């Protein structure tokens, strides 16, 4: 086990956790408006999966995408500025929480329509195949998404056209307040892969290393054989669906059960057991991450709002200034 990699994965998860805690606070202070869907509890999935990918592989995600964005970019400044609606945000302050976008870093959103991005991910993968480029697309979505028509369309095309895409279902047991057992006749979402067909795996999403290995296998299958995979990562969100959801539909006992599987604590235990770092070293890392997030808030606060004159920019591809960040 590579010590550097292990600590990097731990730090990336911590960065997401602390970033969102601070974003939550800023929201309650009125500094952030609009929607805010926190990823807290699911960090093992984004970090494990994205750590297995190349920086040139594409990422397509949902409205719960702060974690995926930070795992790819490690850039809390552009993320926080986007939440604050500032011109220095990754989507130039026009997207907000649900619409992070960064073309240069191959982060293709941030999508709010449940299931709508699954065929888009198949399309991105099709483009790579068509151009004979070696890149794979990682598509993240929730368990509720597996009941949407667009999900089936996306997986059907990926299988038929043999597209280099990894579909990663983050099964957190709920779609808003609806528990999965009320909408799915099978226990594992990955069973759906059989119908297309494509390879599938059901894994523990709270173990970032297990996610990394599983997604690593799927990435190889995509890159070397041009075949898609459906990976189902079982996990749990510690907070409500969005900031305005008190999550009264689930019991304290259920929450406590899943908090014992906290991906950050799980990895910390592994780090101690392997003797890769001690508590003091992880504490030091914690302080460093907190400082980084404080700087991100300062950066966001001091950044200007988008200029009114640019209101119509970026509405259509090619309109407005084309830059590395959000772009067209
Ligand atoms: C087409 C569509 N229908 C309904 C909604 C409202 N909605 C937003 S999130 C959500 C639940 C999605 O659950 P899941 O796919 O499990 O993702 P999670 O929020 O758990 O990450 C719903 C129904 C929407 N955004 N788009
Ligand atoms: Mg869900």
SSE layout:
Elements: H1 3-28, H2 43-52, E1 58-62, H3 66-73, H4 76-83, E2 107-111, H5 117-130, E3 137-142, H6 149-160, E4 165-171, E5 174-175, E6 178-179, E7 199-204, H7 208-225, E8 229-234, H8 252-259, H9 263-273, H10 279-302
Parallel strand pairs: 1-2, 1-3, 3-4, 4-8, 7-8
Antiparallel strand pairs: 5-6
Helix pairs in contact: 1-2, 1-3, 1-9, 1-10, 2-3, 2-7, 4-10, 5-6
Question: How would you describe this structure in keywords?
Answer:
328 residues; two-stranded antiparallel sheet; 10 helices; 12% strand; binds thiamine diphosphate; binds magnesium ion
Structure description:
The chain has helices at residues 3-28, 43-52, 66-73, 76-83, 117-130, 149-160, 208-225, 252-259, 263-273, 279-302, and strands at 58-62, 107-111, 137-142, 165-171, 174-175, 178-179, 199-204, 229-234. It is an alpha/beta fold and 328 residues long. It has one domain: Rossmann fold (3-Layer(aba) Sandwich), CATH 3.40.50.970. Strands 2-1-3-4-8-7 form a 6-stranded parallel beta sheet, with helices on both faces. Strands 5-6 form a two-stranded antiparallel sheet. β5 (174-175) and β6 (178-179) form a beta hairpin. The structure holds thiamine diphosphate and magnesium ion (MG). Magnesium ion is lined by residues 142-144, 172, 174-175. Thiamine diphosphate binds next to β3 and β5.
């Amino acid at each position: 086990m590579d010590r550097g990699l292990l600590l990097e994965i731990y730090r990336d998860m911590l960065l997401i956790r602390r970033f969102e805690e601070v974003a939550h606070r800023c929201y309650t202070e009125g500094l952030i408006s609009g929607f805010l869907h926190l990823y807290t509890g699911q960090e093992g999935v984004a970090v494990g999966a994205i750590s297995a990918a190349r920086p040139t592989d594409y990422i397509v995600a949902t409205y719960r995408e702060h974690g995926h964005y930070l795992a790819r970019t490690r850039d809390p400044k552009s993320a926080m500025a986007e939440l604050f609606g500032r011109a220095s945000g990754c989507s130039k302050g026009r997207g907000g929480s649900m619409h992070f976008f960064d073309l240069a870093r191959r982060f293709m959103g941030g999508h709010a329509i449940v299931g709508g991005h699954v065929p888009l991910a198949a399309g991105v993968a099709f483009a790579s195949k068509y151009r004979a480029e070696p890149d794979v697309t990682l598509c993240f979505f929730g368990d509720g998404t597996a009941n949407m028509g667009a999900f089936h369309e996306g997986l059907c095309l990926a299988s038929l056209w043999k597209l280099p895409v990894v579909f990663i279902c983050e099964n957190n047991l709920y779609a808003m307040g609806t528990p999965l057992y009320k909408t799915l006749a099978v226990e594992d979402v990955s069973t759906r892969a059989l119908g297309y067909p494509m390879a599938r795996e059901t894994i523990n999403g709270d173990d970032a290393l297990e996610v990394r290995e599983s997604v690593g296998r799927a990435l190889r299958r995509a890159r070397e054989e041009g075949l898609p995979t459906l990976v189902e990562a079982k996990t749990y969100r510690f907070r409500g669906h969005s900031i305005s959801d008190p999550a009264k539909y689930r019991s304290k006992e259920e929450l406590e059960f899943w908090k014992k599987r906290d991906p950050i604590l799980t990895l910390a235990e592994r780090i101690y057991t392997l003797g890769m770092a001690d508590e003091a070293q992880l504490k030091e890392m914690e302080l460093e991450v907190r400082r980084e997030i404080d700087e991100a808030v300062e950066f966001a606060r001091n950044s200007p709002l988008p200029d009114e004159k640019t209101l119509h920019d970026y509405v259509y591809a090619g309109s407005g200034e084309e830059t590395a960040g959000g772009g067209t």
